[in-house]
Amino acid sequence: MKPSIPKGTRDFGPADMLKRNYIFDTIRSIFRTYGFDQIETPAMENLSMLEGKYGEEGDKLLFRILNSGPVLEKIREGKNDLKQGDVTEKGLRYDLTVPFARYVVMHQNEIAFPFRRYQIQPVWRADRPQKGRYREFFQCDADIVGSDSLFNEADLVSIIRDVFLRLRLGVSIHINNRKILAGISEVIGERERIVDITVALDKMDKIGIEKVNEELAVKGVSENAIIRLQPIIRMHGSNADKLEQLKEVLKNSTPGMKGVEEMETLFGILDQIHPEANEHSYPANIELDITLARGLNYYTGAIIEVKVADQRSQFTSSICGGGRYDDLTGIFGLPGVSGVGISFGADRISDILDEINGFPDFTTESTRVLFANFGNEEAVFALKMVNRLRDEGISAELFPDAAKMKKQFGYADGRKIPYMVMIGSEEMKTGQFTLKNMESGEQSHVAWDELLHVLK
Amino acid sequence: MKPSIPKGTRDFGPADMLKRNYIFDTIRSIFRTYGFDQIETPAMENLSMLEGKYGEEGDKLLFRILNSGPVLEKIREGKNDLKQGDVTEKGLRYDLTVPFARYVVMHQNEIAFPFRRYQIQPVWRADRPQKGRYREFFQCDADIVGSDSLFNEADLVSIIRDVFLRLRLGVSIHINNRKILAGISEVIGERERIVDITVALDKMDKIGIEKVNEELAVKGVSENAIIRLQPIIRMHGSNADKLEQLKEVLKNSTPGMKGVEEMETLFGILDQIHPEANEHSYPANIELDITLARGLNYYTGAIIEVKVADQRSQFTSSICGGGRYDDLTGIFGLPGVSGVGISFGADRISDILDEINGFPDFTTESTRVLFANFGNEEAVFALKMVNRLRDEGISAELFPDAAKMKKQFGYADGRKIPYMVMIGSEEMKTGQFTLKNMESGEQSHVAWDELLHVLK
Fold first, then answer.
1. Is the CB of residue A213 less than 8 Å from the CB of residue A232?
2. Using alpha carbons only, how large is chain A's radius of gyration in Å?
3. Fewest CB atoms within 10 A around its CB: which of A145, B27, B73, B319?
4. In this structure, are B230 and B280 located in the same domain?
């Protein structure tokens, strides 16, 4: 039997884990300094919690779990009275936001609102696998629910800056507001087509403005409306300039003006706490981007998307995104609780850090010293010392077999272990051990205290 | 819609996560001092990798994933030409050992053998949920493959001791050997029924010796053999005593004597590295237990099981187990690679630490200081200071809304935040902030440096 794994999934070997843990640990430590508490939700959710939350396309991409019991037998017997619920009633989580909304409603009585939670877990989507797109991938989410203050949006933008500053990756933080998009739909006379317009605009990056216009026409947006849309989505200038222009364009739209006001407030806070980030600056410039739409339907206010803006990288795709959702818990029975959140795509961030050689040196993380094995008696003596080193927090191993020294040295090399200790019958008597620096090849004779000192 | 989660699964709230992370972090740090490298494998495996590895019962407990595409439609239409592979070809992992064996075979050319790996991930079993038994639960595994030295078994026993010493939980480490069980089957004249005998003995703890004997009879083990089995499984004395008795009992069985020899070697090493643990001692006594069987078929040598032995706990169930498997990678096409491993059951350990109040105090983990919000201007000023504290690694928050003070204090209490800072227009001018110790109620006026000093 040839071993294999499902397409779109990956094994993470030791070197991959060091990289992933580095990204997770960085993001986690910043989430924690911002006062976010960790939760985790089950991999499986009831399908009724997931279906209808991610649009038609999302429903198709859910991984569904076959019910327990004799379902497979029934299917093979061609039982045509099986309903969906008889076959499958659970699915793997598709993102962390909907399970979080479900969590908030179920645990509302235990939560001190506003609730700041973070969650770092895999999600699963039955997408067509391709380079950089996986069927199992990892999201790192921070959300605040129970407050509609724009200080929350400001905190999330600060987190994004801190994360990429720590990871030494230049990024561009794009911000827009669904209410501005609603206002634009309204003033071009296509208020009812806000979803189509959002979905089309969301593709701007990938397909360009001409194709977006074509899609809008296909969806039934009038020629006149498309013409009126052009100057708006081609708007440029500083964030303050854009806000001034939008005030003029959207003056007859109530939601549009509300969106502009929210953005003025948010950029007002950001200008003061990150004065250097208003225009292009390292590590993150912050930009009001009228063409930013984001596909998910549950967003109602600010939307945020982060793109790599680092001259060392060829990537242009989104590596973090989020926004405000005023009524996500409403579908689970708790209306009136506004939330806002962001999600870091750990896999893409890892791919980019790989591309630009942006990971630190991890050699300190693995085994520090290997004790050679010269036979049972010496090995037992060595193992006692290995265990004493472990008690001191030093990562140590005894080679388990009394193999040829070439093999034992080869193992130390293969695992990049920096030191080896040789204890033969002579060394057992004298208490002076042979210590070999595997990089320099230098050998010395050391007693226990000295050994401990070198390895610490 | 009433929110719910699948039965047998759990949400982990902030308090649960602190406990779980404490257990994971403890185990992980010990795995690392023993030179184990971390890997992770996908939640989904191809069913061909999983089926047939866990016995008939295990196959029934696999969670299977419905294939993508129009499978559900076909089922509803009663298409009776659907084969299993058309309906489902992936399943959720059932344990970490089989995916690890699959990993070793697929990545054999990248691995420096002997390979010491650890893996901490959830597994899924469609078991009937009950108290302490979940459908999604967490295993913490350490395995060494590519060496049949008994020093590996000794390392794993030391890890178990270290983990429970660190967790301050008294345990009893039971050790047996499949070859001894094979020898016993042989000398009682039932060599062919080794599996039935193993499965029955494995239930000794739960159902007692009488019911085990009944089950043996039902499975067709002869009355004579059952009679001959009794003195063996009722054998007692010190580990050395038992080994002496076994040598007599098993003298006509080649595998049996090989098992005794292995156990003599292992206990010989353990006696020297843990001289205090031979008999009952804190935190772990190590006991040769002839009735220990363990259900899984892939074990071929030493088997290990850890039970709580702490007067504060009522639990008697297994919290860690493992053993040696000589040919697990063989089924995936790489024969001749022996492995040995252990698996800690994090969920049961957590339940027990809960029972005995064995968790440390986690209050230092969450937000350290909350800044009150007195309106936009004061809040922006406060947020700048909050961000400076975060830069210093201090977990800090601004209350996002200019709510009534009662509500803001209530939030700090609810989240057990130890300090609050109040900055009104007066404080903005003077640079002297009001700092309140939330536990004592004491208030003081401090400048930035002093604030930093108190919070650090």
1. no
2. 28
3. B73
4. yes
Tell me which residue in A32, A136, A376 faces B43 most closely, judged by beta carbons.
A136
Query: Which of A305, A323, A355 is at the close of a domain?
Result: A355
Q: What is the dihedral of CA B28, B32, B34, B38, to 10 degrees?
A: 90
- Please give the Cα distance from A439 to A417 (Å, whole number): 9
Q: Do A44 and B395 touch (CB under 8 A)?
A: no
Give pLDDT tens digits along chain A (456 positions): 789 999 999 999 999 999 999 999 999 999 999 999 999 999 999 999 999 988 888 999 999 999 988 888 888 888 778 888 889 999 999 999 999 999 999 999 999 999 999 999 999 999 998 888 899 999 999 999 999 999 999 999 999 999 999 999 999 999 999 999 999 999 999 999 988 888 888 888 888 899 999 999 999 999 999 999 998 988 989 999 999 999 999 999 999 999 999 999 999 999 998 876 644 455 678 999 998 988 767 899 999 999 999 888 888 779 999 999 998 899 899 999 999 999 999 999 999 999 999 999 887 678 999 999 999 999 999 999 999 999 999 999 999 999 999 999 999 999 999 999 999 999 999 999 999 999 999 999 999 999 999 998
Contact between A332 and B158 using a beta-carbon 8 Å cutoff: no
User: Which residue out of A21, A22, A37 would a mutagenesis test of the B interface target, given it has the greatest number of B Cβ atoms within 10 Å?
Assistant: A37
Which value does ipTM take for this structure? 0.93
Contact B397 A116 (CB under 8 A): yes
What is the residue range of B411's domain? 369-455
Which chain A residues have a beta carbon less than 8 Å from that of B415?
112
In chain A, which residue's Cα lies nearest the Cα of B389? A33
Nearest-angstrom CA–CA distance, B350 and B347: 5
A280 with A396, same domain? no
Same domain, B322 and B428: no
Taking residue A172's Cβ as centre, other Cβ atoms within 10 Å add up to: 17
DSSP symbol at A116: E
Query: Any idea what DSSP says for residue A426?
Result: H
B275 shares its domain with B374: no
Domain identity same for A345 and A306: yes
Of B66, B272, B273, nearest to A64 by CB-CB distance is: B66
Annotate A319-363 with DSSP letters as a single string: EEEEEEESSTTGGGT-TT--EEEEEEEHHHHHHHHHHTT-S---G
Judge whether residue B277 has pLDDT over 70: no
Residue of A nearest to B411 (CA): A112
The number of folded domains in chain B is 2
Are B333 and B373 in the same domain? no
pTM over 0.80: yes
Residue B278 lies in a domain: yes
CATH code for the domain in which residue A228 is found: 3.30.930.10
- Looking at the fold, whether A334 and A415 belong to one and the same domain comes out as no
User: B83 vs A102: CB contact, 8 Å cut-off?
Assistant: no
